[in-house]
């Protein structure tokens, strides 16, 4: 089983990564920063509809600050969703700002509501961590999912990724009569392969969601990561394989019952072929992000040494022993996808 024993180090945005973000339009001047939101005057625990503690706290600001903060937060939402066009925001208001006090980056979550139809959306304001930024960008480039995020100085703005939290899905929906176990198992295999190839770690059931799309004949599933802190950080191979987390056992057992080893190998090959296609379609961005990673510090020497040894044994490739950092390890992992 995969276990993370120590809290991950938070790494600052390097000058090379900053240049990448500027080059590709991810660095945008925002009107309010993460540290400004820390000036709240009080907070209360936030409970869900069933009375369970969500481990988020709703924060409150002094009346003299609140209107200004809410207006600036709406401006950030406009930058994220409408390239800064505030005219489309006139019917929106900030309903709530919540703080997650147990997360690595202690994110703020903003709930935005349309006063005309009560439709709502969320987005997040966080401390910028280089690992997370690399994770978001690699998700955007190498997965089937597009990711909207912005960075400015030490603040990171992320869109909300919609879906049923995997932990909740496994408790409440796994026995649904309309569940298609083969399609869901196939998606988990592909998700598992994608995480391993691009070295996204810690994908236990609290860190991904299941997006369910009913079709006229069948139900389709997509598993999406929602936490990118553990991009290319840990030293154990198993941390990058969701199949080794006990929290995912329900999905793992589903796959054991409903798909054969031959089918699993086919799905793994399919996903690697898709990743190879994405590598070929964005060669400049991939090269630039890898060059930045190779010059950056995003892990410890011990983790780098451990992971390259694990991957050298897994792939039966001595090339991994020559890697000096996580960027070089990731480059070689992606190279093997293209050339095998």
Give an account of the 3D structure.
The strands form two sheets. The protein has a seven-stranded antiparallel beta sheet. Strands 8-9-10 form a three-stranded antiparallel beta sheet. The chain has helices at residues 15-23, 34-37, 63-82, 130-142, 166-172, 181-198, 249-258, 261-281, 283-294, 301-315, 326-339, and strands spanning 42-47, 53-60, 92-100, 108-114, 120-127, 149-152, 155-159, 164-165, 208-214, 219-225. The protein has two domains: 15-159, no CATH class; 164-339, Phosphatidylinositol 3-kinase Catalytic Subunit, Chain A, Domain 5. The longest helix has 21 residues, at 261-281. The protein is an alpha+beta fold and 340 residues long. The model has no long low-confidence stretch (mean pLDDT 94). α4 runs antiparallel to α9. The radius of gyration is 21 Å and the shape is globular. Helix content is 42%, strand content 19%.
């Amino acid at each position: 089983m995969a276990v993370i024993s120590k809290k991950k180090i938070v790494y600052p945005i390097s000058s090379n990564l900053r240049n990448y973000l500027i080059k590709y339009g991810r660095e945008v001047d925002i009107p309010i920063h993460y540290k400004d939101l820390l000036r709240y005057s009080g907070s209360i625990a936030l409970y869900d509809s069933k009375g369970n503690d969500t481990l988020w706290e709703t924060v409150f600001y002094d009346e003299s600050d609140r209107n200004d903060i809410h207006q600036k937060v709406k401006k950030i939402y406009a930058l994220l969703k409408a390239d800064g066009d505030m005219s489309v925001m006139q019917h929106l208001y900030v309903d709530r700002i919540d703080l997650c006090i147990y997360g690595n980056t202690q994110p703020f979550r903003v709930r935005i509501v349309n006063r005309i139809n009560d439709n709502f959306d969320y987005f997040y304001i966080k401390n910028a961590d280089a690992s997370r930024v690399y994770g978001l960008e690699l998700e955007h480039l190498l997965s089937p999912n597009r990711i909207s995020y912005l960075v400015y100085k030490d603040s990171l703005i992320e869109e909300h990724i919609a879906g049923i939290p995997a932990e909740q899905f496994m408790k409440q929906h796994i026995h649904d009569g309309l569940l298609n176990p083969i399609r869901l198992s196939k998606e988990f295999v592909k998700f598992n392969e994608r995480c391993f190839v691009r070295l996204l770690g810690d994908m236990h059931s609290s860190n991904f969601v299941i997006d369910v799309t009913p079709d006229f004949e069948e139900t389709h599933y997509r598993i999406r990561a929602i936490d990118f802190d553990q991009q290319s950080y840990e030293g154990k191979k198993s941390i990058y394989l969701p199949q080794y987390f006990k929290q995912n056992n329900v999905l793992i057992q589903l796959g054991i019952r409903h798909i054969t080893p031959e089918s699993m190998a086919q799905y793994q090959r399919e996903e690697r072929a898709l990743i190879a296609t994405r590598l070929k379609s964005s060669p400049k961005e991939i090269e630039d992000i890898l060059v930045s990673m190779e010059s950056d510090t995003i892990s410890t020497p011990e983790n780098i040494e451990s992971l390259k040894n694990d991957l050298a044994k897994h792939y039966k490739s001595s090339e991994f022993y020559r890697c000096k950092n996580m960027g070089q390890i990731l480059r070689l992992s992606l190279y093997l996808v293209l050339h095998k």
